[in-house]
Amino acid sequence: MRRNFLASFSRSQLSASAATAADFGILFTLVELFGVWYVLATALGTASGAITNFLLNRHWSFQATEARWDLQAAKYAQVAFGSMLLRSGGVYVATDLLGLHYSVSVVSVSLLVGFLFNFPLHRYYVFR
Predict the structure, then answer these.
(1) How far is Cα 12 from Cα 34, in angstroms, rounded to an integer?
(2) HEC readout, the chain
(3) CA atoms in the 13 A half-sphere facing the CB of 6
(4) Which residue, 18, 61, 74, 95, shows the most beta carbons closer than 10 Å to its own?
(5) Spatial distance between the Cα atoms of 79 and 85, rounded to a whole number of angstroms
(6) Are 117 and 82 a contacting pair, CB within 8 Å?
(7) Per-residue pLDDT, 42
(8) Within a 10 A sphere around the Cβ of 20, how many other Cβ atoms?
(9) What is the mean pLDDT of residues 81-104?
(10) Cα–Cα distance for residue pair 97/85, rounded to 1 Å
């Protein structure tokens, strides 16, 4: 069980890194090149990262292709929506209330949400 946990955790972190690249690519492009409000850009980036992460987690991190993809996608959408709310709200609080630069807020909040919210729910709810 321990090895299985460590393997899925390691793979999920690599998948999250790929999803983060998609997420942050969208986020920073929207903010820096197009002047989109950072909170909206955070939500849109989160959505693009979620799609990337779902596909990688299903096929590689948790190797959960035996289950119906549509049911997994519905559960994943619930977790992704919660993650988007936590990230967007957390970035707002860290930036507007604590005075951090939005890029520092995004990275900090994303790490917290990823480790404490996303991974446990992906492993034990979505892809179990």
Answers:
(1) 31
(2) CHHHHHHHHHHHHHHHHHHHHHHHHHHHHHHHHHCCCHHHHHHHHHHHHHHHHHHHHHHHHCCCCCCCHHHHHHHHHHHHHHHHHHHHHHHHHHHHHCCCCHHHHHHHHHHHHHHHHHHHHHHHHHCC
(3) 3
(4) 61
(5) 10
(6) yes
(7) 85
(8) 21
(9) 94
(10) 17
Would you say the C-alpha torsion 60, 61, 63, 67 has a positive or negative sign?
Answer: negative
- Six-digit token pair at 64? 């959960």
Per-residue b or e along 36-53, where b marks 16 or more CB atoms closer than 10 Å to that residue's CB: bebbebbbbbbebbbebb
Residue 93: is its pLDDT beyond 60? yes
What pLDDT is stored for residue 50 in this prediction?
A: 86
Q: Which residue type is seen at 41?
A: A
- The one-letter amino acid code at 90 reads G
